[in-house]
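Run log, item B.
One chain of 231 residues. Sequence copied directly from the ordering sheet:
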Amino acid sequence: MVVSPFRTGALAAVLLFVSVFSATAQEGEPRPRVSIETGLGTLVVELYNETPKHRDNFLKLAGEGFYDGTLFHRVIAGFMAQGGDPKSKAAEAGARLGNGGPGYTIEAEIDPAFVHTKGALAAARQGDQVNPQRRSSGSQFYIVQGRDVTPQSLQNIVQSKRSSMLQPFSYTPDQIAAYSELGGTPHLDMQYTVFGQVVEGLDVLDAICAAPTDRANRPAEDVRMTMTLLD
């Protein structure tokens, strides 16, 4: 599968996208940032204060070293890179991963202000059949790479989801512009909690998503991470 090249000006678009929604945060309350270091480079993610349960949990686990040595264990080019399974620390080559966690889940904080543009940080979860409240995994997360998105495709998604949405939803002009510039995975919007955004290292995300994988989408060569609290 071919990975879309890193878009010229994409990082500037991310920063603009983040700044647009920063106005909804409490005045004087900076958004915390976390560095995710890998053998392919470093990502810096900014966490949303508007999703405090996910923010605080991610900061707690990162600060305790929970994520250090874990893998990006599921990577799909043109879609996302998933990590946060503690079982991945000592996993043998070829072992199936994705069922581990800290022993708890987190109440959903799905906010229409935060959507799945490229670089979005979101919480993984079990499916609606066994998890109708859409509670998030206690530790597993994914970072969106995604594909090109058109305004018409966003309209189609809104129409197709209208009957199943728990609350009315439509894309703002800023969100449409961000999707048009960055791409993403809008079919996941309003289904998973988006609680942050990559603000540095979209090219590193592309490198992770370009890694050769096995049939279970696990990279053939382990992509381990270490996290550092920046703010």
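Observations after the first pass:
- The helical segments are 10-22, 52-64, 151-161, 173-182, 202-209.
- The beta strands are 33-38, 41-47, 72-76, 80-83, 105-106, 120-123, 136-137, 141-144, 194-200, 225-229.
Flagged for discussion on Thursday.
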